[in-house]
Automatic annotation (TrEMBL):
<comment type="similarity">
    <text>Belongs to the ABC-4 integral membrane protein family. LolC/E subfamily.</text>
</comment>
<dbReference type="InterPro" id="IPR051447">
    <property type="entry name" value="Lipoprotein-release_system"/>
</dbReference>
<feature type="transmembrane region" description="Helical">
    <location>
        <begin position="370"/>
        <end position="388"/>
    </location>
</feature>
<keyword id="KW-1003">Cell membrane</keyword>
<keyword id="KW-0812">Transmembrane</keyword>
<dbReference type="InterPro" id="IPR025857">
    <property type="entry name" value="MacB_PCD"/>
</dbReference>
<keyword id="KW-0472">Membrane</keyword>
<keyword id="KW-1133">Transmembrane helix</keyword>
<dbReference type="Pfam" id="PF02687">
    <property type="entry name" value="FtsX"/>
</dbReference>
<dbReference type="Pfam" id="PF12704">
    <property type="entry name" value="MacB_PCD"/>
</dbReference>
<feature type="domain" description="ABC3 transporter permease C-terminal">
    <location>
        <begin position="268"/>
        <end position="398"/>
    </location>
</feature>
<feature type="domain" description="MacB-like periplasmic core">
    <location>
        <begin position="17"/>
        <end position="238"/>
    </location>
</feature>
<feature type="transmembrane region" description="Helical">
    <location>
        <begin position="310"/>
        <end position="338"/>
    </location>
</feature>
<feature type="transmembrane region" description="Helical">
    <location>
        <begin position="264"/>
        <end position="290"/>
    </location>
</feature>
<dbReference type="InterPro" id="IPR003838">
    <property type="entry name" value="ABC3_permease_C"/>
</dbReference>
<protein>
    <submittedName>
        <fullName>FtsX-like permease family protein</fullName>
    </submittedName>
</protein>
Amino acid sequence: MIKSIAWRNIWRSPLRSGIIIAAISVGMSAGVFTATFTKGWMNQRLEAGVETEASHMRIQQPKFNENYDLKESIPNSRSLVNEITKLDHIDGISPRIVIQSMIASAETGTGVRIIGVDPEKEKTVTNLHTKLSEGKYFEGMKRNPIVIGAKLAKKLKVKMRSKVVITVHDASGNITGGAFRVCGIFDISSGIFEEMNVFVRKSDLARLLGLDKNTSHEIVIHLDDTEQIDQYAAMLKEQHQDLLVQSWKEAMPELGYLNEIGNLYTYIFVIIILLALGFGIVNTMLMVILERVKELGMLMAVGMSKARIFGMLMLETVLLTFTGGFNGILIGLGATYATMKNGINLSGYNAGFEDMGYSSHIYPVVEFETIYVIAILVIITGILASIYPARKALKYNPADAIRTE
């Protein structure tokens, strides 16, 4: 009965209740859409970072990343690759030669990380071969092909089939160089990765450096089940304690923080919206109580307990908040589903996004766990916003309240 009375009381002033419900709906729809937009944005960066740049795990010598010394190669890497390949859930493994050196075109030069790969094995650990905007992945060129990023191509002022020269210190410590021709240009919406990494065939780089073709500085591993990454990383660390085994979370920790930062940002944004709406709800309910002083006094005079009056007023506030919040969540989800297929194109800010490693075409993603948390926050806001107006109503003396005009 209290619930029915509380619901009817809300609509005694349809205009006022409609305005506050509309305000809550707009605020919550903005909060929900921001949450799905941010989630999609973070997920895209995470997927690009793991599937295109880092893969799931890597194995190196512990000191290799300090100076990329050619001597810090993995001993017996071939047998290690064969051993790991036999494990369950391993669906890709690629040994690499990695050095830091100079690359130059006819116009200019710059420092880059040169990664020597077996193209077919590399396709099993990253999806870079699907990200070429021009050319083909190590195809159409027999001698010394090289795949570079779009941003590096722009910096070096080179195009497809342009010649670039790589200068290196070989295994004997001599300075030498080799000419390569651009066979592919990748575009992954990450300006830093595009500018700092080039890919050549492992056999070409080993020959240039004077290394054995089986030499490897890094072994990259891809699993068919991402839930197994931490378990496999721990197992390989235990089995190969003389090597540095890292999951993508350890190799690129900034990627691991993305989801946490995205969720934190979303909840802070939603809480700010709810705080603003909460003050509006309190103000509205105080006006409602001020208009109903005489009515509340009569209810108390005929024997209605203060606890039931308190509960009725709280219920009115919660129903008002929940109605607006529920509408807002539905509107936010509707906007998300309307845009999640084709995405939201922010290409006007493309340069800035790429410098940070983010795509400018964003596909919102619905994560129901976040929506549940937002719904709970709405209910909590309604309950907290109802306490002060309801307590204020209980302070009226029935005799004085009845005489109020």
